[in-house]
């Protein structure tokens, strides 16, 4: 099950709740669930009502979900998230959100009072970067304390780590900007910290290499070089998996973009690849039998079908998802989709 923000942590502590646990417990037959993005610090927030994993109340809240999934024999990783520039000052007491450089992603962002235009972010100091690396470490330790089987770093979809990777959001002139090695540095700083404190085989990363023209990111003339460098270097770490996303938009007219993500990175990466985006039973079966990926994750189909695996197994019809309740509070559109046995 792919990570999906559901904005149900509408409590003062920004903690996952019993309701969150019910939702993930219902989906435990997924095999491996990756939670919604859970923020690593207060300054990482960019959406309303998302859960955090930086204090003890949040650890206790998440323990309910990890237990609910384990009781039914499933595995669950926490997705660790910093939204960077894709946030709004309204989430940060009026302060501009942190990012590699002072730029405006020019997107609509989800402020506490609804959608607003994004504003210019605040360039991180070296001290801010150090603190963020340390916040990823603390959040990882917290995740294991909360009973998660592992963590997935959110390196995709235009959020902080991808903002470091991409030329259109990183104009730094220090060791975190400029060359491909420098723009990827923060990721390896984090992994180098994590390998000293947790079992690195329980750590994963999500990447969206051909993200273009949405979420504040554009493909550039070094995108392929950058991701080839990252994925090659990840071979040395022995991570749980890398979670790759096929292009979100049509990039066939863009020669600098990788067209077929799984095929491209299968040639480079020696470990486990999870591939995602818009798969169904047939296309997923094909990508696996072609050998281009080891696992396929499903997002939206799991919102509406808690027993998606059983439905695939029995060729049963799928429930249709209701987009209007993707991010609204409460049980509606969250824990009330029927399974076959009902
Ligand atoms: C409601 C919703 C929330 C999402 N939130 C996240 C998120 O928190 N982290 C993430 O990496 N991707 C997120 N995504 C992207 C999904 O993980 C997935 O990449 C996307 O839905 C495409 O896969 P699918 O076609 O199987 O749904 C979200 C998608 C949806 C629909």
Give an overview in words.
- This protein is an alpha/beta fold and 342 residues long.
- Helix content is 31%, strand content 14%.
- The protein has ten helices and eleven strands.
- A seven-stranded parallel beta sheet has the order 1-2-7-8-9-10-11. Strands 3-6 form a two-stranded parallel ribbon. Strands 4-5 form a two-stranded antiparallel ribbon.
- Strand 10, helix 8 and strand 11 (295-297) form a beta-alpha-beta unit.
- Helix 1 (18-26) packs parallel to helix 2 (56-71) and helix 3 (126-145) runs parallel beside helix 5 (180-197).
- The mean pLDDT is 98.
- Bound molecules: flavin mononucleotide (FMN).
- The site of flavin mononucleotide has 20 residues, from strand 1.
Strand arrangement, largest sheet?
Answer: 1-2-7-8-9-10-11
What is the assembly state of the chains in this entry? single chain
Structural class: alpha/beta
Percent strand: 5-15%
Sketch the major β-sheet: 7 strands, parallel
Number of strands: 11
Name the bound molecules. Answer: flavin mononucleotide
The first-to-last residue Cα distance is 21 Å
Q: How much is the average pLDDT? A: 98
Annotation field: number of helices = 10
Secondary structure: helix percent: 25-40%
The gross shape turns out to be: globular
Q: Outline the low-pLDDT stretches.
A: none
The succession of helices and strands, N to C, reads: HEHEEEEEHEHHEHEHEHEHH
- Rg to the nearest angstrom? 19 Å
């Amino acid at each position: 099950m792919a990570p999906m923000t559901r904005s149900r942590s509408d409590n003062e502590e920004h903690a996952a709740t019993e309701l969150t646990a019910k939702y993930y417990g219902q989906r435990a037959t997924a095999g491996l669930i990756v939670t919604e993005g859970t923020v690593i610090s207060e300054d990482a927030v960019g959406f309303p009502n998302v859960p955090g994993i930086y204090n003890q109340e949040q650890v206790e809240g998440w323990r309910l979900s990890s237990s609910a999934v384990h009781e039914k024999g499933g595995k669950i990783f926490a997705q660790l998230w910093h939204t960077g520039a894709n946030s709004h000052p309204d989430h940060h007491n009026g302060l501009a959100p942190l990012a590699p450089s002072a730029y405006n992603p020019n997107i609509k962002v989800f402020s506490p009072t609804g959608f607003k235009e994004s504003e210019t972010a605040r360039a991180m100091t070296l001290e801010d970067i150090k603190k963020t690396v340390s916040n990823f470490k603390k959040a990882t330790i917290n995740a294991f304390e909360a009973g998660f089987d592992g963590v997935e770093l959110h390196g995709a979809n235009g959020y902080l780590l991808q903002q470091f990777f991409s030329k259109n959001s990183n104009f730094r002139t220090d060791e975190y900007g400029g060359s491909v090695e420098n723009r990827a540095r923060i990721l390896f700083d984090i992994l180098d910290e994590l390998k000293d404190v947790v079992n690195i085989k329980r750590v994963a990363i999500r990447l969206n290499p051909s993200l273009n023209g949405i979420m504040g990111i554009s493909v550039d003339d070094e995108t392929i070089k950058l991701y080839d460098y990252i994925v090659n270097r990840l071979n040395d770490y022995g991570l749980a998996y890398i979670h790759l996303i096929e292009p979100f938009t049509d990039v066939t007219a863009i020669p600098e973009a990788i067209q077929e993500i799984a095929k491209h990175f299968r040639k480079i990466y020696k470990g486990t690849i999870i591939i995602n985006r818009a798969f169904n039973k047939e296309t997923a079966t094909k990508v696996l039998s072609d050998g281009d990926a080891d696992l396929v994750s499903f997002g939206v189909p799991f919102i509406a079908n808690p027993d998606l695996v059983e439905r695939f197994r029995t060729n049963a019809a799928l429930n249709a998802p209701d987009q209007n309740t993707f991010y609204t509070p409460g049980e509606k559109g969250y824990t009330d989709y029927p399974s076959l046995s009902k």
